[in-house]
C-alpha cells in the first residue's frame, strides 16, 4: 500500500514553512552587525539608530518571519483549516517581508528617506497578504476553541501594529509632524503586547500540554485571557491616541502586565506538573521564556514606581520581552517543528521511505546543538540586560546574537540537508 | 454520561500517561519496568484504534460525516503503529538513544493526531451521532 497516495492531509508542502525558517536566522546575524556598527553603546538610549535597526531586524526579519511560517503549519492542525493558496501566500509574504525588513533597517541606520519609502509598501504587502489569508482560513474553520480566538485577536492586533508602523515610517520619510512619542508607544504595544503575546498565548494552550504531557490550561484562564488582553490593548490604544492622562494609561499597563504574570505563572506551574520527565531543550527554552516574561513585567512595574529610572528600566523590560520571552519560545519551538516537518514529509514517501529508513526526530538536528544554543541564548540575554550600563556587555550581546544566528541557521540547514539526502534515497529506490 | 468527545479525550490522556511512563523507564535504563510499561501503552493504543476503526469511524461516515479526514486519521494510525513497532525493536535491543529518538517522534505525531481528532472529528461525531451516543459509548467500551 502506498501510504502517500492516501494522504489528503491539509498540511502545506514542506518548502512553505521551511523557507521562512531558513531565512530568519540571517536576520539575527544582521541584527548583530547593526549593533556592532553603532557609534558608541547602542543600548545607551532607547532609540539609538542601531538599536532601532537591530530591533526591527529581530522583530520583523526573525520573529515575524518564523511566526508567519509556523502559522501556515499550525492552523490546519489546530483549527482544521489551511491558509488558502499556501505557495503563493508564502512567496508574497516571505519575499516582501525580508526585503522590507532590510530596507527599514537601512533606513534607521542611514536616516535615508528613500529607504523608508521603499520599506513601508513592501512590509504593507507582506502583512496584508498574510492577514487576508489567515482571516480567510479562520473564517472557513468549523472548529471553535480558545486558540482560534487568541489567533484571531492576535491578527487583529497585527493589523493595528502594521498600520501604526506604516504611519510612522511614512512620517519619518516625509518629515510630517506627528505625535511620534504616542504613536511609537501604540505601535510597540500592539505589536508586542498584541500580535506576539496573543499568538504565543494561543499556541501555548496547545503545545505546552502536548510537548510535555501536562494538564490543560485551566478554563478560567484560557477562556478569558486573550479577550481580556485584547480589550486592555484597545483601551490603551484609545487612551494613547486621544492624549488621555498618564494615570489611566498606567492603569491599563498594570492590568496588562498582571495578566501576563498570571499566564507565565500558570504555564510554569503546568510544566512543573508534567508527566514527561525526560530532559528536553525546548522545555528549558520555554521556562527561560516564561521567567523572562515575569522579569519584563517586574521591570515595567518598577519603572512606574521609580520615574527617575524610567528609561533604562523600560528598555530592559523590552529586552526581557523580545530577547527573553519571545525569542526563547520561538527558538524552542523551531527545534521541535523543523525535525517534525522533516520526518512527517519524508514519511509520505510511503513504503520506500520505510525501506530506506526515515531518520527519527533526534537524528535530524543533533540534540547537543540545541543545548549549546540554549546556553548561548541565556548568556546573550544576561549580557544584554547589563548593556545599558556596561559598554563591553553591549558588544558581547552583539557577539552572542551573531553566534545564535549562525548556530540556528546551521541547525535549520542541517535539517534541510537530512531531508534532501533521505528524499534522494527514497526516489532512487522508486526508480 | 460523557460526550463522545470527552470520553475519547480522556482515553487520549490515558495513552499519554502510559507513553510517559514507558519512556521514562526506557531512558533511565530500567529495562524490565520499561518492557511492562510499554506493553500497557501499546495495548491501550491498540484498544483506542479499535474503538475508532471498528465503531466510531464507520458510524461517523455512515451518518454522513467527512470521509477525507477519517481516511487521514486511519493513515496516521498506520504511522503510529509503525513507530510503535520501531519502539519495540529499540526496547528489545535495549538501545536508550534510539528509543529516545523514536519516542520523541511518536509523541509529536500522536499529539498532532489527537489534536485534529479532538478539535475537528470528535465534535462532528457528537453532533451527527447525538441520538445513538449512549449505545456508541457502550460499544466502544466493549471494544
Molecular structure report:
The complex is a heterodimer of chains A (431) and B (143). Chain A is an all-alpha fold and 431 residues long. Chain A has 15 helices and no strands. Chain A has helices at residues 3-6, 15-36, 49-79, 86-110, 113-140, 146-174, 180-212, 219-222, 225-241, 246-272, 281-305, 310-347, 350-356, 367-386, 391-430. Chain B has 143 residues and is mainly alpha-helical. Chain B starts with a helix and ends with a helix. At the A-B interface, helix 3, helix 7 and helix 12 of A face helix 1, helix 3 and helix 4 of B.
User: Mean of residue pLDDT of chain B?
Assistant: 92
Q: Sheet with the most strands of chain A? A: none
The whole-number mean of residue pLDDT values of chain A reads 93
Order of helices and strands of chain B: HHHHH
Helix content of chain B: over 70%
- CA radius of gyration of chain A: 21 Å
Q: Biggest sheet of chain B, open or closed, and with what strands and sense? A: none
- The N- to C-terminal Cα distance of chain B equals 18 Å
Radius of gyration of chain B: 16 Å
Number of helices of chain B: 5
The number of helical runs of chain A is: 15
The helix-strand sequence of chain A is HHHHHHHHHHHHHHH
Helix content of chain A: over 70%
Give the percentage of residues in beta strands of chain B: under 5%
Unreliable residue stretches of chain B: none
Number of strands of chain A: 0
Short structural description:
The complex is a heterodimer of chains A (431) and B (143). By secondary structure, chain A is mainly α.
Keywords for this entry:
heterodimer, A: 431 residues, mainly alpha, 15 helices, 0% strand, globular, disordered N terminus, B: 143 residues, Four Helix Bundle (Hemerythrin (Met), subunit A), 5 helices, elongated
Topology:
The complex is a heterodimer of chains A (431) and B (143).
Chain A: H1 3-6, H2 15-36, H3 49-79, H4 86-110, H5 113-140, H6 146-174, H7 180-212, H8 219-222, H9 225-241, H10 246-272, H11 281-305, H12 310-347, H13 350-356, H14 367-386, H15 391-430
Chain B: H1 4-27, H2 31-62, H3 67-92, H4 96-128, H5 133-142
Helix pairs in contact in B: 1-2, 1-4, 2-3, 2-5, 3-4
